[in-house]
Here is the input.
Amino acid sequence: MRAQSFRATMARVAIAGAATALTTLSAHAAAPEAVHWEVQADRGYSDDVVQFTLTAPAPAPGGASIASNPASLNTFVGLSASQLQSSTPRRVAFRVQRDAGEFVCQGVAQARRASGECTFHGSQTFAQVLQQRGVGGAKPVDLYQLSVHNVGTGYLDDLRRFKVATPTADELSRAAEHGVSVSYIREMTAAAPAFSRMDDLIQAHDHGVSPGYAAEVRAAGYGAMKADAIVGLHDRGVSADFLVGLQHAGYPALPLEDIERLHDSGVSPDWLGALRRDGYVGLSTEQLILLRNHGISADYAGAVRAAGYGRLPPEQIVRLYEHGVGASWLADIQKAGYGGLSPDQLVMLRERGVAAAYLADLRHAGYRMLAPEEAILMHDHGVSPDMVHDVVAAGYGEVSPADIARMRDHGLTSQALRKAAGLAHRPNVDEIIRLRDSGVL
Here is the structure.
């Protein structure tokens, strides 16, 4: 569009009772027979700029199609600043000429304001130009919309110059109605070649996709991404920084669906980068979402890896986390001499409430190294490390964990054990228990 023209953005308002509804003319073949116009010279612009509003009846009952934008007085052939400044009502008549048609207007001006009615005459010459350019046949309403928004041959030339596919008359009319300006088209096609169709440009404009955003997506390595995909990313709030972060974390050129799912699940580039530094690379989208949805931090994953579980699948990491296998507990278990346990054994110990200190104290009691299942058995039966120490001290260090648990169940004390050890005939575990139950010990 040219410098002396105005760039209109349609606001379609239909009022029915107290409700407001959007309406449009583009779906109807006929142009409005009469258009109400209004000029305001008191909006604070420069002396030669006014606010120009066109209001046309819309198909919805009580509805209207409104276009209102600043315009140079040069636009109005036959309307002068002195007429607008008249202190008394003054009849005015003027024309607004566009490539697609002409508005012939009459009305009254007074005190820097004017209003009245226009008739619109579509240009058949321009309609022929559209046919010759491959746009196709334009309906009267198309010519009206193009005239309202000053879309003419210059706009068509610019489309060709920016390598935008020739639009249909309906697309051209909608582009005008939706405010898709030449500058927007120029910047969007330069930012991302994917925006080479008018429908895509209209959609991007309606969804608020800026040329800057499209350029950033392309710079992030997604130059081949389709236009509707870029719009989809924008709608979901996926920033270009997020895309760059995916690349740096080792996840370049992901499918659109995966990008959206990762973003919607709260997966951040910082989190991915931290996982990468801890050795977790090449995970699938499903695995990343699984870890994120269960609140697995990079620190936790790193602690699991540092504990010797670097090849543990994400599903197992989640299982450990969900069962309360914390990073500090895992480190203490290792210090207690129980490194290299399977995830199932770790979960079993944690679920039974076996503390790392308990395992360490059992080792220090002088008893042999216990399997996790044996330690759990002793823990479940209330066998303390002190009792194990007494068993060993009494000369029964070779008995099984199950026998120690049986002695605990029958109330064997350290004193009773020492007494049993001092008997002439050294009793076995079953005999000790019988002696204890009979009150001898």
User: Anything to note?
Assistant: Residues 1-27 have pLDDT under 50 and may be disordered.
